[in-house]
Amino acid sequence: MTDTRPTDHMQNDGERPIDLEAGRRAFMKAAGFGGVLAAFAGAMTDDANAQQADIDTAILNFALNLEYLEGEYYNRGVYGIGLPADLTSGIGQQGGGVRGGSKVAFGNPVVLDAMAEVANDEKNHIIFIRSALGRAAVAEPIISLDTAFTAFAAAAGLPGNFNPYADDYSFLLGAYTLTEVGVTAYNGAAPFITSKTTLAAASSIFAAEAYHLGTIRTLLYSQQNAFYANATALISATRARLSGALDDQGIGGDQSTLGGGFPSPVNITDTDANSLAFARTPRQVLNVVYGAAGAQKGGFFPDGVNGQGGVNRLLATTGG
Q1: What does the angle CA 294 – CA 298 – CA 304 come to, to the nearest 5 degrees?
Q2: 90-114: per-residue pLDDT in tens?
Q3: What is the pTM assigned to this prediction?
Q4: Which InterPro entries match (predicted)?
Q5: What value does the CA radius of gyration of the chain take, rounded to a whole number of Å?
Q6: Kindly report the CA angle at 108 between 183 and 248, in degrees rounded to 5?
Q7: d(CA 19, CA 57)
Q8: Kindly report the CA angle at 311 between 308 and 313, in degrees rounded to 5?
Q9: Where are the domains of the chain?
Q10: What is the model's pLDDT at position 51?
Q11: How far is it, in rounded angstroms, from Cα 274 to Cα 259?
C-alpha cells in the first residue's frame, strides 16, 4: 500500500494551505473517486471556488483535531501508547504532547475487544483525513487526558476524583464523554461542506462514530447499574449546558423524552423528538471540549485546537 501520509511541513496558520490539489487527489483516490478527478480540474481558478475549498479544508482540519483527541484516548487506554509521530505532524503548534492517559487493566474481554476496534477505527480516520488534506493538515495540538477529565467530571457532579483509566466502565464513561461530541460535530458540519465527495466521506465517518457511540451506550446499559445510567445523565446535562441547547441525553429511559417524542425503556440512540441525531455548530463543539462557553482554549485542548485561522472562517460561515 502506498503511504500517502504527509511529511512534516510547517507554515504559518494564516497562510494559504499549500498544494491543496495534491491533497484533494489523494482524498479522491482514498475514497474511491479517482475517476471523477477531471470534474474538479481547475476548481481553484476563481475566488468563489477557492473560498469553498477553504471551508472544506477548515471543516476537515476541525474534525482532525477531534480525531486526534479520540485517537489518543482510545489508543492509550487499549494499547498503552499514543499515536505515532508520523500521524501527528503538520501545520500549527507542535510540542507539549499528550498529558495523561494509560493502559487500562480491562477485566471484561468484550469491552476490551470493542474498545480495540474503536481505537483502530480512530487511527484509520486520522490517516484518511490527513491523506485528504495532504500538506494542509494541521498538527496534533496539546491534549489533556488527565486534568480535563477531572474538571469535566467535577462540573458534571460525578463523585470522587474521576479517572477514566481506572477500569473498564470508567473508560467507557470517558469514551462516552468524548465520542458523542464527535458525532454531533460531523452532523453539524455536514450542511456547510461544499464538495459532494468530501460530504460523502464525512458522512461515512459520522456513521462510524455513531456506531461507536451506540456500542459504548449499549455496553454501559448492559450493566443494569443505576450509577452508570445516572453518570451518563450528568455528563449529557453538562454537555448540553455548555452547548447551550437541549441536544444531549443519557442512556436511561427517563432521558428518552427530554425533548419530546415517545417514551422508551432505554435510550441507546441519542436523538431528538423526531428520532434525528443531534447536531452541534463548531462553536458549540468548542464550548464542550474547552469546558466553557465562548472559550478560546482549555479543557481537553489546553492551548486550543490547531488551525485557528480555519476555525475562525468556519465560525464565521456557520454563525458560530
Answers
A1: 85
A2: 998 776 799 999 999 999 999 999 9
A3: 0.85
A4: Pigment-catalase-like (IPR052965), TAT_signal (IPR006311)
A5: 19
A6: 25
A7: 12
A8: 115
A9: 20-33+47-318
A10: 63
A11: 9
